[in-house]
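<context>
A single protein, sequence plus fold
<entry> Chain with its tokenised backbone below
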Amino acid sequence: MSKARFCLIVALLSLLLLSACARAAVPVVKEVESVAVPAQPTMPARAPALGAYSSEKLAVVSAEQALASTEERMIIRTGNLVLVVKDTEAAVETIKGIVVADGGYVVSSNVWRDNELFRGRMTVRVPADRFDATMGAIKGVAVKVDREETTGQDVTEEYADLDARLVNLEATEKELRELLTTVRERTGKAEDILAVYEKLTAIRGQIEQIKGRMQYLERLTAMATINIDLQPDVLAEPVVKSGWQPSATVRDALRNLVRMLQFLVDAVIWIILYLVPVLLILAVPLVILILIIRRLRRRSMAA
């Protein structure tokens, strides 16, 4: 076999192998194309680095997140009532029972006499969700409601702002604690440790202050305040009290007469035992002086 013929046979075999490989590859590609590729899950956008925000933007974002996390509005509710009642003392006791039954408590209670009539003033606190019901029950004690006022102060935004500031301060506190540990391990200089510690103490003080304010707002919003003024019903007062007794009036008059006589007797005793001796002590030098002056005048006239 010549060399040229051998090369021709090799070339033909190569072409046959290439065509066979091409035909075999076509079904594989179609099979792959027919298979549905599952969609890749959408990854959440990565939060930008802390350095991408300024301090103002960070505070705004944190405040908005804290505000969004507040499920309900935080309202400080206050009610003011001026009630006309038949019996002030009985009304005070009834209102105390209503408040305690609703889960509240009495902050202050004061009853005083004004021209033979009793007036009262109370301040109570009840759970915020029982505010309307308690107000209605208290008004039921009165003969007439002279004035009713309800106010509310929304502190939701203030609370959210405090919460955002608290998060930022706590993050700063954590970083300062880590920095304090690093400074102690690496340098150990008292000046550096003291500087970091002072910053840490200042941040901790701000955190405690914010927590205290937040707890105060939580208490105010959890419990509503009701101020109550109790006025007696003048028309309900009888013209003549059932307890009036003429004999008691006579007894009071005699008692006052005896007191007057006692006062007069005491006055006479004071005059005799105190005033007269004092006057005598003061009069003796004056009388001696007058006598000396008269004697000097007589001598001068005789001369």
Observations:
- The mean pLDDT is 77.
- Helices lie at 3-34, 55-69, 88-101, 131-139, 156-186, 190-222, 246-302.
